[in-house]
## 1
Amino acid sequence: MTITAVIHEQQAVPQPKQHGKPGGLLRHTNIVTGVVLGLILAVVTYVIGGLLVPWGTENSNFLQVGESALVAATYTAWVIGFMIGIGAFAGPIRWWLGHDLTHADAQYLAGKGQGRGKYWKYTTDHKVVGIQYLVMAMVLLGLGGLLAMLIRTELGVTWAEVFDPNFYNSIIGTHGIVMVIAMIIVVAGPLGNFIMPLMIGARDMAFPRLNALSFWLLFAAVPPLASNLLLGGIRDGWTVYQPLGTQAPVGMVGYQICIITFAFSTGIAGVNLITTIVTMRARGMTWNRVPIFVIGILSAAIMGLVWFPMYQYSQVLALSDFAFGSAFFIPQNGGSVWLYENLFWLLGHPEVYVIVIPATAALMELMVVFLRKPLFSYKIAIAGFAGVVGISSLVWVHHMYMTGWSPAAGYPFMLSTELISIPFGFLVLVMLGTIWRGKVWTRLPMMCVYAMIWNKIVGGITGVYLSDVPVDQYMHGGMFVVAHFHFMLMGAGLFGAMGAIAYWFPKMTGRMLNERIGSIGFWVSFFAFQLTFGSMFVAGLQGQPRRVLQFDNAFDVSNWLSTIGAYAIGIGMLIFLYAVITSWRSNVIAPANPWGAKTLEWQTATPVPLENFPVLPVVTSDPYGYGVPDPYLTIEKQLTDEDQDAMVGAR
Amino acid sequence: MSELTTNAQALVPRSATTGEPVTTTARRNRLGIWMCIVSDATGTLALLVAYAYLWSLNVNDAWAPPKDTWADPLPFWLIWVGAVVAALAMWWAVAGIRAGRTSQFITGSILASVVALVTFIGQIVQLSTFPFDITDGAYASTTFWLCIATALHLSVVGFLTSAMIGRFRAGRITREDHSHARFVAMWMTWVCVAVFLGAFFATTMNASPNTNSPTFGTFQE
Amino acid sequence: MSIVDERSAPADQPEEPTNRPDATHRLREWLARPYVRPILTMFVVFCLLVIPIGWLVVFFMNMSGAPASDVMSEIEKTILVFTIVSAPLMAITLTIIVYSLVGWGRVTGDEPPMQESPAIRSNATGTYLWIGATSLLAAFLVIWGLLALANITASSYGSIPSNQQPNAAKAIDINVTGQQWVWTFEYPDQGKISSDVLVVPIDTPIYFNVTSVDVIHSFWVVELGVKIDANPGAITNTGVTPNKLGTFNIRCAELCGMHHAYMETQIQVVTQDQFDSWVREMGGKRTV
């Protein structure tokens, strides 16, 4: 007699053999076992490896080759140990043995009946993973923001060196990469995992266990990166151009292991998101009824999935140079610095869109709700996303105009880079067109939309400047570039993410966001942001190079203003964070659909039950059926009718 | 519930965890595998780009290994043949389970596992017997990494093919629900392509076409 | 009779009248809407803001010194043109944001507003206008950029070695070596003299071969608009013809380690006579 289970409307689904209690080994694993096992394995590797490594070998920069290899092995052991400890390998081993999950197992893994403990475990429920990503993103943003304050302190104190130059260089590198990771996950992580499956009417992601895996890989990747500051730091900016990277102390290994691990995390998340969106939409949700946010997540996932391995391999090869003395990026031994730059920017540029597009799409999704108006020209929006995804892989060389790699490449890549501004302009058109003539409901998420459009247009236009080779000949490597990409990544990405999180906060946490305090934080940050990076544009125009800690007195004033602005951003962000944390703890309970929105995630209960929908929804139209008939068009029609009458009369 | 519906449900095997027909989950998983292959293809492309780019530049005249001791081409192709044989065995096994010939499936899986294991060992042997070290110039480094990538690919293949045996014994691969076996064969087909590209680059592109690269740190070409 | 004939209207009948009034009528009706004139006015005002902004851009760029070569003049002109051309785009965005906050009405409160906005799902005219305008702007900027690039490549000698230039006799070759954290300039044709300050004669084409002996640096002569990476293991080339006497800044524009910020030196543009005597002082040969 086969054992069966009742799964929703299916009465009797045959089950595989139940091995042990539901959940099996994962009943006993959580973050504590993960950290403990990771640390044990790391220490054991360090001790045993220390005995085995042939000490004394030095590379061309007189660094101990053995030490780098040992540190690399230790970090790898940490990652593997942590993943064993959290229970990530239980899945593959069960698969190998043929002990597939039963329904009861799957329910346990999704966190059924585990209270708050499920947030500290290898939990597969997409809502749990979404919350985990949200907290992780906030932690990383906090760390990156703290480092940003240190950078601005150094640059504001124009009369002295506050930090040791090497430490300063480590701060800028760590700030950069921490913020890039945070911005990659801040929308696609929490909202792509929590909201997207709800939005398409699915019960979970396509591969729930891979979902947990992608988060915990990210978690395992962060300690190596954070610890680099204790091990001498990465003194090379977030791009870690080689061969400067090979001169760094062993902290560099932390960066490389972090990126390699994070790339696995992103790739797995990308596979999961794409498969979920393509195969798990609710019945009736055809491609022209998909909410635009889902399209944005899909675009970002495609770019991340296709291009992230380039970055990953650039770090694998750099680690190989650093720890084993191979010659990929070391010119004395036949390596090429341009190879690194190409591999790096092949992801490096699409990654900008991986950050900006989900935020843009999220704000498109929410602005219709606050304007009570359909999205303007859904098809143009799709075309915009498709165009950006398509062209994004053909523009990377604009980061390398001044490398001398191929002066002739400036012509085609100037063309492709300025071409991408056209689909990007589509996205602006959609947002402006949706605002056009709308009566706006002035809530915090909508304010973020205005902020984001402004920042995006400033960032976009300065981006067009930089896409031009002659202009870049002056601006490249200068503060203008820094101001430009902060307008793009922070101005559009982070303010967009703040709006998106404010909008979906009631659904994710079950409580309303305190908008009074939140708005104060938001507006302080916004205006301070304009001051900070506006004066950074000025410093760039004056000719200040980036990544310097001392400079001509000519740049003093703009740097002072920039530093004042940066501190104010910090204060604003802390106020916003305070609003988020206090609201999460104790604000009023949110109703299921506080905004009166039409997308599916608002149609289910809050807090969202384990498998999202008691009965899977069937979609019959797109979610933008807001609005009343255009009064002017009615008048026009009447007018023409009258005109016709007059014509008939005249005849 | 009438007996009729029970029978009808039994005809369509359903996923134990989500209750969907296995054909639905199989389609979904197949897309996932395709995505993994795309991602892995970009990684392989990165290695091939590194090889071809360093080959064409010959920076500091340091592409070639000391005394031009290029790697022996034969092992590269033997390893590729191993990967192909393993993939063919797996496809043969899939054809067997499709037709309900379980013994053909188990024979094919075992054959694929054994061949994959032997090929993996061959790859390790090749890695340890190169006439140069990983530090001996750009050719040595890139060739080492192409072979390391092949070794990683083959170890994954070994894990997947050997799992087929255990999964079959546990009754998880049947005539009606054999999608996992097909995914393994799909992955192995991609591995054949990746191994071929690596072998092709490492065996055909040896001496660099650029003979007048500038000497490091000087202005002499 | 074939099917086609049945479907097509007989030629002598007039076209079926449509409800849609002609374009002029529609434009007039559109202009008569209460929100249109304020928006157009705001748009024009915001467009005019480009005048002070453009002036500021040039002012800031010239703060550390006016352009000292044709290349830099070209760059500055390009930046100014880009500022002017992108002004309408900035202006329309700002206009719609501001007007939306003040003009089309606002709703406050905790409950979703009952009153809905007009359901405009698309607008062919607006869309075509936007796509046409942005494409035209982009096309203009691309063409301007390509021409400017060709221009500065020609005036900086681009990647063509100096000995292939028509006026090669006059040009001066300089080998630039970046090294943590100093620049070294070697004059191969002037008896291989080397210096850590760049001295060049005015109105003479200078041709730079650039390399590095450790990590990547970027050779940036600020007021002359020269920038090229100094890559270890490769030689990159660029050039410039200074047209202004004076002392200008050379900076490193690529993070190169601890003292990146201090990797600065100066370029002195001097007369030919001063240059010759400087070469003699340094123990080199006279210029050929």
## 2
Amino acid sequence: MSKLEHHGTYTPTSGVGKWIDARMPLPRLMYDSFVAYPVPRNLNYAYTFGGILSIFLVIQIVTGIVLAMHYVPDATKAFDSVEHIMRDVNSGWLMRYMHQNGAHFFFLAVYLHIFRGLYYGSYKAPRELLWILGCIIYLLMMATAFMGYVLPWGQMSFWGATVITGFFTAFPVIGVPIQELLLGGFAVGDPTLNRFFSLHYLLPFMIAGVVILHVWALHVTGQTNPTGIEVKSKTDTVPFTPYATIKDAFALILFLALYAYFVFYMPNFLGHADNYIPADPMVTPAHIVPEWYFLPFYAILRAITFDIGPITAKLGGVIAMFSAVLVLFVVPWLDTSKVRSAVYRPWYKLAFWLFVINSVFLGWLGSQPAEGVYVALAQLSTAIYFGFFLIVMPVLGLVEKPRRLPNSITEAVLERSAKTGGGSPQLGDATASADKS
Amino acid sequence: MKNLVVKLGAAAIAATVMATGAWAASAYPKNKPREQDWSFAGPFGMYDQAQLQRGLKIYAENCSACHALSRVNFRNLADLGYSDEQIKAFAANYEVEDGPDDFGDMFFRPATAADAFPSPFPNKEAARAANGGAYPPDLSLIAKARAPIRGFPAFVIDPFRNYAENGPDYIYSLLTGYKDEVPEDVSVPEGLWYNPYFASGTALAMAPPLFEGMHEFDDGTEATVSNMAKDVAAFLMWTAEPHMDERKQLGFRVMVFLLIFAALLYLSKKQVWARVEH
Amino acid sequence: MTDATQEPEGELPTRRDFIYVATGMMGVVGAAAAAWPFIDQMRPDAAVRAAGLPIEVDLSAIEPGGTIVVTWRSKPYFIRQLLDDEIAAADTLGEGDMKEYQPAAERIAGPDGAETRNWVIVSATCTHLGCVPNIVDNAPEGWFCPCHGSVFDMVGRILRGPAATNLPLPPYVFADESTLIVGSDQV
């Protein structure tokens, strides 16, 4: 946006409004950020997930605070207290199912949001920090979800915590001390549950803090858009309210309807039956599978079955798994293309969709046993995952011949409407700066 | 020393990963649960009170000898259509431990509506000792805690047909699935009962619990093994998910609201964007 | 956005306004309905309510002139057997002696068919700010609240101090000669 669209059309009319504006211009900040804020006029529904995610953060925090009023973080009482919520607390079952399924839909939305960013090149300069802040949010979400999953203290909670903290034992010398530090004991137990509860309560507020930075960074650079061309003139944009707000609201309600279907009609579909068995440190469940949103990384962990020099297979798996997340941080510098959006990059577009299919396939492999043909498939799939970031992104940017780019968002919009609509193309009267008042 | 700890940690991880892989190799249950028609299936399905009452009778007269139901309180039986007086009288048949009294001693008293079903054994160890080493699980949550993997493509189709009765289907199949004739390639350990529907092995310690004609039902339902298995499975679904009726009723209102709201938002959105190219 | 003056196109604004207003109303209704479960969950849950069922008290262990404290719904209640002179002392008090006059006889009860009615069953929660008053045998004074000095008489009527109302009577009923049920007025 680079100061092209001058913010500050806010003019307080009432005496109180002027009084506040002179002292702490919060209403002005809100107005400039969520009303007058100019957004490209060609945003499609893939751009609504940011708003959906912020609502899901609120849903998770509000239902979580409610659950914490009834939950007891004690190894002997945690499972009982969750059942107390499910049976006796007024609307307790609703709070619990909303929170449980809310986590799944939070991740669904964040993955769609990330894929959107990868497709339209949202990470490219000058939005590297915006992208990295998003990656930090994603990491915090993963930590929060993992610790939250431990709290009901069912069999999967317990053994999931055992396995995941076991990752750290892969590191030589420091591994076991780190694991004991995390657990507060030699195995998962009461101290673990208490600290996970404390951190599970803390992290969402840290997420909220980083979300504010994420939105701040977004409002400095402005949204990208499907063409990937920066906003050049007033006619490229429309004001956030009502144009983007009404579209975001519509998408949000559709997404909430899907969420509600699972909350009310299939509340346990995305969970695991073994977590309705109280934790038993003596009996391991027949098979431990993480929640679906971790499955691709779980597959990568198990794909490394061979030693690489001094690195054991176990350590290699852990390194590969962490790298699979961390590689996202350097994506802005891996992509060498001068063109931002996949719309004008035929080869990248193909590679992107193969990457999406490969990610889903990795998730499926994560749910399968690590043996026989699955191991070989997981290794191939892991290679494709890293190949996309480390080879396709840098190389394709140099060799690919992009399609012709329109000169501006406005031109792209008019070209398309000329193609689809019959009448003479015109922009309509709404632009971000066309302040009618 | 440190090395040993590291190795043990590694072994634990390896064992866990192997255990993870083991399930496909063992592949229990041998037979998938048989899907039944349930009154509570589907978005409008509700519990059948008469069926739950029959299930309660079967639990109280058979299962409760070994299996606890400790998360269900007598007051919850109001959901099954019983009056306060009936619940009070029913609860009074049970003795629960209370105390300490003024002398510091524990004592037994008749249960009240506020009490939970008393457990047949004081603890897990006692339950194991009385049952040849096998622990009869608490049945309160069993219908949600037993759900054999559906696999692909059922996993993808289930949300579209709103299939959420894997638990009761499993219980029904297990209770009716005992086989006298053991296939040649299956070995059944001494003292266990062959059942191809069992989730974690070829055979289980529980003997076939239901026999034709073992109960008489006031509503004239015939006491076949199949009928009784179905009734008790439905009852256990209720003990696991007592608010299901309420959930689906609220869910209907929420879905209708969201769809109307979405339609209105769509119209509003169309109006707002009507004369703006995008 | 519903400013009709900018859209002088005949009937169109009416329809647009209707859709916007309906959408907005739906949003408000939805938010209000969604807020209810979050408030509802704070009310006493089913287990707490069930634990608040009426209690049975054995009266045979209480000496004349003695008082015991029982618990119903997690709150204490006094059960006091009055002596004849204590009842007489309570009867001497009139409207001018207290803030909220009620005849002493209305606050004294006994089993059906008993010769004397000499039982007082009152809340042990001071009506000022919720402390538990001390029992005093200084007829007609019967209770003294140590927190802020409220003084109640033998049947729990407020005589002086910051409390403004008498100690409330819980629902109760005598099941037989020596059994009292607190928490319900039906056997």
